[in-house]
Design goal:
The structure holds 2 protein chains of 2 kinds. Chain A is an all-beta fold. Chain A is built from no helices and 11 strands. Chain B is globular. The chains are: A mainly beta, B mainly beta.
Amino acid sequence: AQSVTQLGSHVSVSEGALVLLRCNYSSSVPPYLFWYVQYPNQGLQLLLKYTSAATLVKGINGFEAEFKKSETSFHLTKPSAHMSDAAEYFCAVTRGGQAGTALIFGKGTTLSVSS
Amino acid sequence: GAGVSQSPSNKVTEKGKDVELRCDPISGHTALYWYRQSLGQGLEFLIYFQGNSAPDKSGLPSDRFSAERTGGSVSTLTIQRTQQEDSAVYLCASSLAQGSGNTIYFGEGSWLTVV
């Protein structure tokens, strides 16, 4: 069965520092992988997705993620954090089977950014 | 509409009462999904619709939960005899159905509190 594991439920960085949010996946088929962001009291918004094209995927707000099959990872990075990046981030993989287009989400990582 | 619309945005109900949550997907999206988000549990997949049929209902937590979709558009999630553990944010999402890499768009959720 497909699954994702997000390492670290809470990550704290200083403004201007590198952001690294970790995601490892398990999938019996070539995966489609996603990162979503949820700002306080808002719905989920797609940051970026991997659909078997380029392994380095660029998303909105300066975020990018690299698909590494050998490591079964899809970590999210941003070179320089802004205060506005403070939010909860979710990694997800397609569920497969009868609900092939539905997503299975990790438990989320809360990013805090301090000045 | 421009986005996924959910109603009510907030609902407080007494234990044992039935509740209905409504989702209006993005126009033209044939796939519709319900998720539940609660503290410490992340995003839990409930059910997926393709058109009016639900190929995968395996995520529904008990037989008190049911969902329907009519006309390939609006969906209703019904929780009968609500319990306190049903308190959560119920998120609806929709997507074009062709291919597992399609972006899934989320509504802002219905916050349910069972007292």
